[in-house]
Amino acid sequence: ADDDPSTAPSGIETRADEAISESTEATHDRAITVDEPTGGLTAGLDPVLQQSAGTWIAWGDGDADFDVADERDCVAVPPDDPSYTLQRIDLSDEAVDSYYYGFSNRVLWPLCHGFTDLVDHQSNDFEWYRTVNERFAEAVREHATADSVVWLQDYHFALASQMIRDDVPPSTTVAQFWHIPWPTSATFRHCPAGGHVLKGLLGNDMLGFHISRYAERFLDCVHRFLPAADVDWTRQTVSYDGNVTRVVATPMGVDAESYDRDARSISASQLSSLFDRYDIDRENVIGLGVDRLDYTKGIPERLAAIERFLERNPTWHGEFTFIQTATPSRTDIRAYERHGDLVRSEVKRINQRFGTRAWSPIVYTEDYLSGAELCALYRRADLMVVSPLTDGMNLVAQEYVAASVDGDGSLVLSRETGAHETLGSHALTIDPTDIDDFARQLERAVSIPPHERKRRMNTLRTRVFDGDLEWWMKTQFDWMRSVRTERRRTGVT
Ligand code: ADQ
């Protein structure tokens, strides 16, 4: 691959939510199912891997032969015209519990989102986290050569890059993207094994965040908690233990063209059948929320704002419907279970308070919607509400804009999302905890003059298309190339 940033010979991918299915091939005695990627990071990485004939290493979903990787764990992708290898690492139930639900999602996830009261560190969690990181690092080392680019995704691998760096040739490029926020130093000081996390991440030659606020907070944490590290604030680099890490901010985008294309191809009958399924009056003004059922996404605050809006605006009763899709997620974690119960009971209470025989103000579903259904809702929604208490980026806001092909929807957007950095000036900004103002922004969204709505949406669309997934991928690989060139210039070969 040399210095060509468009090729990534070795990748590591962890985002279990982004599925793989459709064509099935049998390898030895196991059936392996491979899906076309439908969106998000998977869709972006797939063509890169196809071009580079690389290896994608991911958490598998099969037998828990945790100790050894063998050829049965590798599958050629795409099956009909193989161009890269997908290697799956199977994890035992105990590993999943302590590594994935444990240190990743009961410690790092709440901590990085500032929910320190939800951090629940149980014995063995960190040891399993280290063990699984080591297992992935081992798999990477089996493939990495001096020319390889290794790209790790997300907070499930805070230790792996250091483990990889120690064992691959010095000219191998090791990079990582951290998809969630990086917390303030006041929050990070509560991180169990925080020193290990920082040192682990400094094994990268390049470390990416969505926005500069997170990159700066990371540098601040390194400066405060790792005195042996040398932070260069101007160049945004850290020198530690013989390695230099470049810290960059690149806001992730969506495959805007595909959302645009899919939204344009929605037929009136597809939309009608969706509205029939949920018994929604087609003539109503439609508000929409699309989220994983996660306590960071601000769904109870959104429901409270809708309730306030309905209290203050009886003329909208019967005329306004809010559709909330909430996909259950990490349900093995108590905080998620409790949060789901809270959301369901609030929806019920508000519907009982305002609803009539013919009308429910909130239509709530936990169905996982197909890409086409999601696009149909995005296109039809008069207003989209994205109200996380904190969110690394938030792709839903961008998907809505990309699918708003009629140019006439309004985006109500939390200032606490990474997406607000690029979209905030033309969205209707909210502080999700200020319920009164939130309700006022909903009032504004339903009554905004059409020409202003279109003007705002036009600018939002330009931003989303300019900073789409392809731009993000290219920018990440450009950074990796520049880091590699710099390492060579300074004699690391
Ligand atoms: P998430 O927290 O998962 O991602 P988000 O960026 O909003 O959050 O992406 C969610 C994805 O799930 C979207 O692509 C959306 O279309 C899809 N989705 C949600 N509900 C759905 C439903 N009911 N049916 C079908 N699809 C549904 C993490 C970080 C984010 C960051 C991303 C990418 O928390 O801040 O934007 O990674 O870096």
UniProtKB/TrEMBL annotation:
Entry coiled-coil feature ranges: none
Keyword Membrane among record annotations: no
Keywords (A to Z) from UniProt: Plasmid
GO terms for cellular component: cytosol
GO molecular function, one term: trehalose-phosphatase activity
Biological processes annotated in GO: trehalose biosynthetic process
Domain of life: Archaea
Keyword Protease applies: no
Name the UniProt record assigns to this protein: Trehalose-6-phosphate synthase
Species annotation: Natronorubrum aibiense
